[in-house]
Every structure is written in structure tokens, then in C-alpha cells.
Amino acid sequence: MATTIAGETYLGEELVSSLSQSGDVTMYLWPMRCLKSKIGGPTFGVDVKGVEVIRFDCHGALGHWHEGGYDKLGAGGSHVDFPEGVVEGEKQISWALSQIRDEGKRLLEEAGFADGAGSLDSEMVNSATAAIQAHLQKEGDLLSVAIERGLIEA
Fold it and tell me: Count of domains in the chain?
């Protein structure tokens, strides 16, 4: 499972959902991850047997995602910019969740996790991605809280 980083601040309640019947493939959400560099937003990703494979850092203008195996390649080796025009946090969240729903198996296979890809349960994936949207809604405007506390620069 993804681990928090010393010096970063995490606001809101973490959410973890299974994406496979075995529980070997999971998706996590940190509703507000505040980096040391004073940027942040929701971060979520997919783990296979405790290894983080895919990560989405929905941090607005500086948002990006990681493919190919986050733990295997490291943050720099797996870094990918969001597509052109996907700049706002809400658009990044929607785009990223659709990637997990529509391309999750392919992304896991390409990262070398064929067993994890094969065990993805589409109903569980749909439920987990909907749960992320609902959880973010429930957590409210954590971006304003982070800005108010000086954790993120507006």
C-alpha cells in the first residue's frame, strides 16, 4: 500500500477499497495530500499485493499521474502529465477514475502485473471509483482548509 511521506500533511479520512475478490488489488484515496512544495490535492492509486502500481496526483495545474509501476520505477520514472486541457482538479479526478474503470487492466498488464489485471472485478472497480467520488464529496472543501492553514499556496 502507498505510504505517507514524512513532512507531508494529509487531511481527511483515507479510503481503501478492494478491486478484486481476493483483496490482492486495492485502491486507496488520500482526500488531501499537501506536499512540502506547498502544492496538493487528492491522491489515489491502485496497489497489487501491497505494491503501488498506478498513482494519480490531482493537484490542479501541477497535477500528474504515474504509470508503469510507481514503486518499481519511482516517482520520476513513472511520471506522466495529464492530457492537454485536464488542468482543474475536478477534471483530473474524473479523467483518472475513468482510466481506472476503462484502462485499469491494460495499465496493470503493461506495468508487469498480469495476475492483478486478471483479477480485477469490474463491479468492484465501478463501486470503488464511485466511492472515491462520494468520499471526496463527504470530506468537503479540504483545499480551502489546506490553504487557510498555509499547507498549500493558492
Answer: 1
